[in-house]
Amino acid sequence: MEDSGTKPHQSWLDRLISKLRDEPETTDELIESLRAAFNRNLLDEDTFSMVEGVLTFSTLKVRDVMISRSQMDVIHINESLERIIDIITQTTHSRFPVIGEDKDDILGILHAKHLLPFFAHPERFNLKDILRPARFVTESKSLSALLKECRNRDHLVLVVEEYGGVSGLITMEDL
Fold first, then answer.
1. N or C: which end of the chain has fewer CB within 10 A?
2. 83-138 pLDDT, tens per residue?
3. DSSP calls for 77-98
4. Measured between alpha carbons, how far is 66 from 95 in angstroms, rounded to an integer?
5. Could you give phi then psi for residue 76, rounded to 5 degrees?
6. Which residues, 6 or more positions from 68, have their beta carbon under 8 angstroms from its beta carbon?
């Protein structure tokens, strides 16, 4: 048996909003309404945080969560296998942009796992041969659109500013 006033196919969010006095008209108002529901113990903390995160996520752009250019860990194309292993060990990342002259000269992406065959045969190591193509997005791209595009492919994407220079990077973990 259903509560009176509850429609059979109403979501929990619809039911929650219908119990609130003023219907929200913006995302910010909806978050404030949810906060009020949380304060009245209609939502637990985990649920409130999750819903707030989902609502906020839809408004964020790549620039809001990217790792800035100055904080990017990169590998220079001429680095030795030993030096690359040191960099991977120090940073604990699994993917790295590989650069030529500077951070605007992206040659590809190195996956740390592709170095494994060279532990037994370091003389065969050639960094250029194991690079993956780099993918680029603009700072203004929405996070939700990028997440849809990257779900099964790119776990590290480089971010470019309006003039084409690299402004940072974003990873699936950042999303």
1. N
2. 999 999 999 999 999 999 999 999 999 999 999 999 999 999 999 999 999 999 99
3. TT--HHHHHHHHHHH--SEEEE
4. 15
5. -80, 145
6. 167, 168
Contacts of 154 (CB under 8 A, 6+ apart): 135, 172
Q: Are 108 and 132 in contact (CB under 8 A)?
A: yes
Euclidean distance between CA atoms 160 and 32, whole angstroms: 34
Residue/partner pairs of 147-152 with CB below 8 Å, 24 or more apart:
147/175, 150/175
- How many whole angstroms separate alpha carbon 105 and alpha carbon 112? 20
Q: Which two tokens stand for residue 85?
A: 């292993």
E-strand ranges in 13-171 read 67-68, 75-76, 95-99, 106-111, 136-138, 156-160, 166-171
